[in-house]
Structure formats: structure tokens, C-alpha cells
Fold each of these.
Amino acid sequence: MANVAVLLAPGFEEAEAIITIDILRRLNIHVETLACADSRAVVSYHNIPMVADHTLSDKIENVLRRRGITRRPAGQR
């Protein structure tokens, strides 16, 4: 099964996001929503709140950790 991540940033157009997610799920594609913000809660252009599955930064950290990669503070080698 295919996997797709839909990124939701503050001010996203809710119809575009929800219709895209709906179509992909009807095609049996696994969809995860990722918030491009500090929390999972993201507010759309029309002030409609939506809670994403994960934050983008959390998902990146999990992927890096699974691959054995650790982030270092800027300027360190």
C-alpha cells in the first residue's frame, strides 16, 4: 500500500486538504496529516481548527532516530 503525507500549515485551504485526503483514502492510500507548526492543532484560512496526526518536526525526528541518525546543535561536527 502506498503512503502519503499531507502537510498542513497555518492558513491552509481546508477544502483542498480535506478533498485531497478523502480521495487518497478512497483509493486505499494510507494518509498521514502532518502539522507544519509547533503543535498538532492547525487553523485554516477560514479559522477552522484541524488536528493533524503528527507534527512535521516529530515525524522527522522519528525517521532520523529509526535510521540511527542524531541531530547535533548547529556548529558542531
Amino acid sequence: MHINTYFGQSYRLLHKVKKQGKPIVYHAHSTKEDFQNSFIFSNAAAPLFSKWILHCYSHGDVVLTPTPYSKKLLQQAGLEQPIIPISNGIDLSFYKATAEMGASFRQKYGYKETDKVIMSVGLYIKRKGILDFVALAKAMPAYQFIWFGYLNLHQVPHEIREAVETKLPNLQFAGYVAPDELRNAYCGADLFFFPTYEETEGIVLLEALAMGQEILIRDIPIYEGDLVDGKHVYKGKTNDDFQRLINGILEGDLPSLKAAGQERIRQKDLRCIGSELRSAYETAIQLHKSDGGGMSVQGTK
């Protein structure tokens, strides 16, 4: 059984499957670190959240997590189960750009061909860097900024509500859109800007890379080694860095990294990920057998 969430229904299913003596693969998509700086009171609740998810994950014969970075965080938190990092992957056959996609995006959102458009994707939460995105829109009126994604504003702190309600002629909040419309945006924008402070992987970054976008991200530990600054993507740490790099990328003063970034993402095609998952399932079965069937649902191994 492959379990993907830590909610009550999944936990009840876990107990049922355990009693049946079946092996469990638990997918650890969340950590304490990526829960913080999200919803109202999330920081105060983070220690309890961490205890709960670790309790859930501890019932897996094998724990999957998207990256070596998230594996490290789980180990540091005290999880003792075997942890295998496997990317969530993306369907590269879907993420193929056409001129029509880009034109459709610009027409829908009112951009001219000459407009230089910076896009980002994420929930309305501080961790995603939304405050920096709005600050840069204010500081760079010559460029157009558009944010995709949505969250009920009653669930977020006042500073986030205030940012989302900011009225600027060069700033749009498009809300949630269907995958094909988001694909159009990846195709039609000039730069994908991902100022997130914490991720376990960041699927939207993989999507933007697959679409051959120019990419600017925050220089954070998860992307060390995997995405090289100045080779696959550009990286910055402060808004001053971002402003300088945005100018350099959009004005052509910095070389394009589109091709290298797109090539880098090929290894995360779902067809490649499928074989990794099969290997993980086989490992879970073997560990389950060697552990005597895993009939107990109490505590950790």
C-alpha cells in the first residue's frame, strides 16, 4: 500500500492495511520546515505538526520523499525508517511549448508582444516569497508581474492579505488556473521567478524548466548541486540580487540558460520515475518480509 497523505482517513487505512499484514510505502511530501510560514498560527503549530507526520511516516516499511534534501530533514528530525529520495516527476510529453500557447497567454491577460512578463506560481503564503514578489513589482514598474495560485485570504496573516490586495498597474494575481492554462503561461512569460524560501521539491519549478523558461530562483539548500547557478538557472538571495538578475536576464545582458535547464529536467520524466518507484516497492516488500510481516501498528520499528 502506497500512502500519500497524513490525514485521518489515510491513518485509518494505514491501520487496516497493517492488520492485514501488507507492506506499507509512506510518501513524505511534507516536513516541519515547509509547514512553517504558511497559514495563520502555522509556526506555533509546527512542533505538533512535526510529531504527527513523523508518527505517520514511522509506520512505513519504506518512506519515500522527493529529494535528498527532504530526506536529510526527516533524518535530522529523528525518523529511523529507510528513506528513499525519488522525485515526484512530471509528464514531459505534456510540457511542450508552441507559439500558440504563448500567444493565448498574452491575449488572455492583456499583455503586448513587447511587454516583459515575470511569472510565479504558488499558494498565497509567506514561505513562497510572495512578499518579495510584490516588493519587486513595486520596484520595477517597467516589467509586468503575474502570480498564479490561490488560497483563501482568511487563512493567511494580514501582511499576506495586504500584499495580494495590492493595486499596481504591472501586477496581477491570476488565481488558480487549469494545467493547460498554466502551461500557456510558462510558454508566454519571459521569466519564471521562484522566490520560495523552502521546498521539498517544487513541482512548478520542474514544469517551468521543462517548458524551456528562463529561471530565477532563491539560493536555498534544496537546489544546491541539482541546479547550478549560471548553468541551469540563475540564483539570488536578496531582493537586490533579484532586481539585478531580472534586469540582466530580461535585457539580454546575461546568457540564456533555457536549453541547459530543459536538458537537466529530462531525468525527472515520469517514465524514469516509474522504474525508481518499482524498485522502492520491491525494497518495501523485502523489508516487510524480513521484519516478520509488520503486524504491529504501535510506535516505530
Amino acid sequence: MTYKTIKYEKKDKVALITLNRPERLNAWTPLMSSEQVSALTHANEDSNIGSIVMTGSGKGFCAGADMEEVLSINYDDARIPDETDWVDLIRSSKPIIAAVNGSAIGVGVTMILPFDTIIASEKSKFGMFFIKIGLVPELASSHYLVQRMGFGKASEFCLSGRLMDAEEAFKIGLIDFLYNEEDMLDEAIKKAKLIAENPGPQLRMVKELL
């Protein structure tokens, strides 16, 4: 499959989706969103795929929304932006792991919060900068942040708009596993392969139960 803003690869029974705008630190665009949905749908419909990993190319995971791209959208075009409910898609998807290889800002954080597991490199950083530009968190992130971090820490993180390093993110539960930069993606794929060995219908049942 050919995409402009992401890459799609198969690693045995694992689908590897890579955000691929490294020159913009993989900043999110409506086209990227549509391509993510397409790739996830393809992986979910492929009987040879058991789990999914999403990462970023270059030095960052996702630097938030590319406002130049967002503001240039023709909203009369019914196909842009994609209107798929992201949270519903992720929660009904095959098991999916985020492999955060650098900074995750704004939507770079909120898009991965519904994932089943979040893995990050020691150089990763996290920021909910919405408050800095007069916006509020999206994609049910207020729910998932409280679930992961607790009410007080989630409140401080969102209300301050500060940047959080990987060590703190791991300590308070924003991320689940922390690895050095060289090993992080391999470890994520290794975990995904282990999950993919299990029966698919039951994996989705477990996701619903959790």
C-alpha cells in the first residue's frame, strides 16, 4: 500500500505503521489521519496480522498538529478530514502498541492514549500544549490521562501545559515501558509479536473487558 504521510510494513504477524513526515517531526495533518485510519483498517482486516505497532520516523514521534495544513483545509470537501471516531477505532482494533521515539506533543499524546500499551525511548518527551493556544484536550484524553496518571497529576499536566520527560512519564504511569533509544522499537515489536501469537477473537474480547 502506498501512502504520502505514513509507512506500512509487515513484521511477521505485526503491522508496523510509521508516521512519516520527519522534516516536520511527523506533525499531524488531516491526510495523515485519513491514512492512519486506512492502514489500521487494512491491518484489522488482514487475517495474517495479529497486532499493530505505531511509531514515528526521524527524531520525533509527533509534534502535534501542523497548523499550516489544518488551516488550509477546504472543509467543503466531504472527504477531509476523515470523520472516523479515532477512540472507537483504536478500542475495537487488534492490540496496538505505541512506540514513542521522540517528542509527542498535543495530538501526538492524545492519539496514543487509547492504545493498549505505550512504550517510549529515554529521549522521548510529552506535552499537552492545548492550554497554551486556548484549546482543551481532545479524543477522550481527559478520561485516559486520569485513568493512567490519577486526577491530580493529570490536572497539573493539562493545566500547566508543561513538557514532561520520559523518566517522569514512566514514573507516574503515562507510559508503560521505557527503553534506550536503540532498543525501543525492537522491544515494541517483540511485545507485539508475543501478543500476536494469541487467538484474535479472544484478544479483542480481553480489550473489551479491560
